[in-house]
Design a protein that fits this description.
Elements (H helix, E strand, L loop, with lengths): L11 H12 L4 H28 L13 H12 L5 H5 L2 H12 L17 H14 L6 H13 L16 H12 L22 H9 L34 E3 L5 E3 L3 H13 L7 H12 L14 H15 L4 E2 L5 E2 L1 H12 L19 H18 L1
Antiparallel strand pairs: 1-2, 3-4
Helix pairs in contact: 2-14, 3-5, 3-6, 3-14, 6-7, 6-8, 8-10, 10-11, 10-12, 12-14, 13-14
Length: about 375
């Protein structure tokens, strides 16, 4: 029997049902008191962050860098996912202005990106913008989303997807594209069952899965010379075949392996989930075990502070969809990862203005708009699961 995993955006009802079932195993009064107090604390932090973001909107409706619609899309996704649903229902003027800005970047080819940009990053901007449009639940965007779906499919290259059609494929861009396709699959004229994901027109899902596994340290499925099953790396992921942002490691055997690292390993787990692999698939089991063995909220394993907030968001998405409420670590400790991660993020919030920022500027994480959006989306996922 295939063990299915649970979506985190449009499948909120499924998460709520799962949590309700678990609540029966714990005294209701105790669980309610603990969760309510902590959820209210998270909600307060979320609203402080949203208020800060509202003040940072540019006159044209964008946030941060207008040449990159994805940055605005991340902000809009954060507003649409807040716990009370206030911004989605009331549609304040600044939110409408943000969506109008996204629509101005819809291109004739179906992509959503700025043609004027020196680096259009067509896939990145299109995929992230699609999620923001889906989160609005506005049927007026359906034709735009259908065209964007078809556009993403044209970017597939050797199974994976990169920033654009001619660039090399990588795990981060592949994840973003698969995520956008996953949450818009109902627009492909199917009944939205997970198995129907394999029937999306134009997308070669077999090749996509082959690309994903070609980035995994798992010699049983990846025959590349760098792939290793040593305990430090087995099951984890690298950025693209032959390249790890975490560098190389010399093994006692004399072999040179590529290091697995945290953020991209969560991207690997998520990608397998979006591609409809089951929990008991050896590739899924291997990356999940690596992530458990390397669990921490103090750093991005293998990368330190680089990409830390991308890592936090990927963790919340992946573990929520996988269906894990706790993690049993190598030392035997059982971790409530939602509370652990939420507590860490609360401790990192700027107490004066409600924003977040990374001390490391790699992958744009010195941009407080980007990082605050990452954190708010993460906290909203955690809030829904508590």
């Amino acid at each position: 029997m295939r063990k299915k995993m649970v979506p985190f955006f449009l499948g909120v009802a499924l998460l709520v049902s799962a949590r309700a079932a678990l609540a029966e195993e714990v005294p209701v009064a105790i669980k309610t008191k603990q969760d309510l107090s902590f959820k209210l604390e998270l909600q307060n932090a979320i609203f402080k962050g949203l208020k800060w973001l509202e003040k940072k909107q540019n006159p044209d409706g964008s946030w941060s860098q207008p040449d990159y619609p994805a940055l605005t899309a991340l902000v809009l996704t954060a507003f649409q996912g807040e716990p009370t649903d206030k911004y989605r229902v009331e549609k304040p003027e600044f939110i409408q202005k943000g969506y109008l800005y996204l629509l101005k970047n819809v291109q004739p080819d179906g992509g959503i990106y700025a043609k004027s940009s020196q680096m259009p990053m067509e896939n990145y901007n299109t995929a992230v913008a699609m999620v923001a449009l889906v989160m609005s639940r506005d049927k007026a965007y359906e034709s735009i989303l259908k065209n964007a779906r078809n556009y993403l499919a044209t970017l597939q290259n050797n199974g994976g997807i990169g920033y654009n059609k001619t660039g090399h494929s990588d795990m981060s861009n592949t994840l973003l594209a698969l995520e956008a396709l996953y949450y818009t699959k109902h627009l492909a004229g199917q009944d939205a069952k997970p198995a129907d994901l394999q029937k999306v027109p134009l997308v070669d899902w077999k090749s996509a899965i082959e690309f994903i596994q070609s980035c995994q340290n798992l010699p049983a499925y990846n025959k590349a010379v760098w792939a290793s099953d040593d305990p430090q790396n087995k099951g984890g992921f690298v950025y693209l075949p032959g390249e790890s942002k975490a560098g190389e490691v010399n093994l006692p055997s004399g072999k040179v392996a590529l290091r697995s690292y945290g953020s991209i390993s969560y991207a690997g787990l998520l990608s397998y989930i979006y591609a409809d692999l089951a929990k008991d698939d050896p590739r899924v089991k291997a990356v999940y075990e690596w992530l458990k063995d390397n669990y921490t909220v103090e750093e991005n394993p293998g990368m330190g502070g680089d990409g830390l907030f991308y890592y936090y968001q990927a963790m919340a998405k992946a573990l929520s969809m996988y269906g894990s409420d706790t993690l049993t670590l190598r030392d035997g400790r059982v971790i409530n990862w939602r509370k652990d991660l939420a507590s860490k993020l609360l401790s990192l919030q700027n107490g004066e203005d409600g924003s977040w920022v990374n001390a490391s500027g790699r992958w744009w994480e010195k941009d407080p708009v980007l990082v605050t959006s990452y954190v708010l989306i993460t906290l909203e996922i955690l809030h829904r699961g508590l």
